[in-house]
Amino acid sequence: xxxxxAFAEPAASLGWQVELFERKAVIRQLAxxxxxxxxxxxxxLQALGKPLGKPWGQEHRQATAAALIASRS
Length: 73
Prior knowledge:
Layout: H1 2-13, H2 26-34, H3 38-49, H4 58-71
């Protein structure tokens, strides 16, 4: 989190909207927002990356989930 706050604080001071997500909880958060189970939500995220090919791992799904949540703000 040290690196996150090192970037988040200056960005916020510039008036940028900053959202921080806990890596291990972000897919669960998206699932709750969408009314899905975590497994179904993760399966949808996996399907989003399938056309892109490899690599499309857990960290990519987490980043996509965070972007989808942030875009609702």
